[in-house]
Amino acid sequence: MSGKEIITVEKWPKAKGKTVKLHNNWIISKIWSFWNINSHELAKRDIFIFLFMAIITFSKALYLESYWSSVLFVSFLIFVLLHNLIHILQTLIVRAYTPGLYTAILLVTLYTVYVLFRLRDASLI
Known about the structure:
The chain has helices at 3-8, 11-22, 26-35, 39-62, 67-94, 101-121.
């Protein structure tokens, strides 16, 4: 997630609430409940994800050629790609922009794929 999501997460329900509530669908209501939070709650989620990512990245850097650190790091990168796919699916299901979509597509997905290829080319995975 990005700082942009933290800033816009409170505006999104106000802007898209009527559109989303028109659809009486279980999955849409779950998406709605995930995003209908305040910036403080989203920031707490982000801090947890950042700390988890930092520990995994530090472990990979510390044990660069270790098999277990590679498995852990690649697993995390695949999780990131799946998380980004969820951003895209949420947008398609709700039929409206959801916070984090542009960051997921334009920044995080491209960078994650780049890192995976670089690790493969360096024979680290």
